[in-house]
Amino acid sequence: MIADIVGRPGRRIISSALAGLRARYSADFILANGENAAGGLGLTASIAKDLLDLGIDVITMGNHTWDKKDLVEFLEKEDRIVRPANYPPGTPGRGSVIISRRGKSLAVINLLGRVFIHDGDCPFRAAQMELDKLAHHRGPIFVDMHAEATSEKMAMAYFLDGRVSAVIGTHTHVATDDLKILPGGTAYATDIGMTGPVDSVIGIKKELIIKKFLTQLPARFEVAEGPARLEGVYIETDESGKALQIRKISEKEEC
Fold first, then answer.
1. Is the N end or the C end of the chain the one with fewer CB atoms within 10 Å?
2. pTM higher than 0.85, yes or no?
3. Of these residues, 64, 146, 171, 173, which one is catalytic?
4. pLDDT for 238-250, tens place per residue?
């Protein structure tokens, strides 16, 4: 699972590093959060196509799902992109998907937290509803919990422990040092970081962020430039879907 892709620098390192990472880890599936891939806010249909063509198997989203209008129609056509399952009924797209590759299958669920970030439907009830839909699936189940509050992410992990293979936190763009496997066999990390420019404040030009904190005036955020870092996790499961290991991935771009 690749951490939140931020703008052109994030896409650039994906382009150069992805094939090598798949080979190094013998990865059956590669997932990535793409909700910041287009200029730091949202995802366009063309960028989504490019990321999928590079070898990403499923793109997950978050609170910036609707920032680019052309993605709305694309979500109905492309089943390799999942948006948060706890958006209201009737929302375009899907909250979970099952993909198959080389005789193996993986289910992916996307959820969005409500604490400090979103006032949508309950992610816990949405998670249960998606699991009910996936009752026939016998392979691993991966959950991207896109949320601000660490407590909400942890609570979701324990709520789903033993029923899914992994609950991986995204959104804050800062990796946490708490990778573990819960008692029921579910891999967990509160946040896996960011795939984007290193010399930045969570991907944005640092001088713009500093100015906003100093003045409290509205500011148009711009993705920072310079070398990027790819962050994420590698997760291995057994045939039943129980997690066997979770390891941090961190690759810095050479420029």
1. C
2. yes
3. 64
4. 989 999 999 999 9
